[in-house]
Amino acid sequence: MRFLREIYNDSLLKNSFYLMAANLLNLLLGFIFWVIAARYYSPHEVGTISALLSSMLLLSMISALGFQTAFVFHLPRNRENAGRIINSCLTSSIAASIVFSSIFVLGLDVWAPPLKSILSDLKFGILFAAVTAFYTTSANISSAFVAGRKSSFYTIKETLFGFFKILPLQVFSVFGAIGMFMAWGIGVLLAVVIGFFLLSLVWKGYFPVPMLDPIIKSMAGYSAGNYLSDIFLSLPRLMLPIMIVNLVSTESTGFFYIAMMIAGLLYGIPQAISNSLLAESSDSGDLWLNVKKSIKLNAALLLPGILIFVFFGKFVLNLFNPTYAVNSSTTLIILAAASLPMSLNIIFTTVRNAQKRVLSVVKINAAIAIITLAFALPLVRSIGIEGAAIAYLAANTLAAIFVVYKMKNMAGFVLKSILTVTK
Length: 423
Description:
Blueprint: H1 2-9, H2 11-40, H3 43-63, H4 67-74, H5 82-106, H6 108-111, H7 116-119, H8 122-147, H9 151-166, H10 177-202, H11 220-247, H12 250-280, H13 287-320, H14 322-337, H15 339-354, H16 358-383, H17 385-406, H18 410-422
């Protein structure tokens, strides 16, 4: 009971656990989603939609324009203008998502020829653009919850999204591969509707209205830096399935996508802690105390988590389909191991963001993305999906070695962090 009271009374820990709970529920509901998909859809259809979803998530991330991290940093510091900031950022992101989705669909011969069989149909191209816009909006709403220190609302929204996308999955199997995407789209749409309602409870007086208020100009530099940073951070996880579908097969893409989705539970731990840490950085005097708590909590959860995947990963994959256990177990172990060096990189870049030293964040995430894709190209061709996982582990490990080197004078690093934020 005392432990639970400490968590409840500590804003950093409480919001971190809510975010991790959302990631856990996302994984469990995603697990159910893909178990049903694996039983009612063929491996070829699962692989095709894996590549389609990866493309959609990549476009959504690009369309966010860096506002998600900017929300977490700026909204707690500018509460009186929160409504104008949120609406202006959402309007910009939706417009960007429509533009980028259209470019992607029109250039399928270049980006992903295997997806042309689906998206060349106009109505499915429009569906793809709409789901991308809704998903971008949903992600921005989630960041506004974190910024308002109401991560519990994020957990509620994501849980309902998970349920809503599962319900029509079996019925939509008559549509083939696109049926999975339609089910996903329904879940996102309903999550956005619920998200707007909850948003009005976090930021008093908020009401969604399309606008482009000049107030977001003050966020331009920070948003632009984090825009590039977010692109590089997400690029490997979103590009690797597209690379696999082009270099190996659609079935292999499905095997890799499932392994990456499961490993995502571990990746969500440092990301959840760091999102909460950045929101708490507005209380600058507690920065180092919060960094210390973040590192301890990260290690306490990640180390046993990796061991669980090493010993029981094959069993989890077997629940999807025995084929996944045979083809994805090694990949899952490698991707799980990558969570440890990744966590060091994420916490380090969060502190840099709190310092407003965004260029440093861009450099680290860019290095990880470039190294991953450079290593993956020959490795995927030679050994398949395990090669993609090895490339991801190697890139994060090299970046973590650099981070440890940069943080070797911890006292000086901490002092600079505190002084920078308090200015």
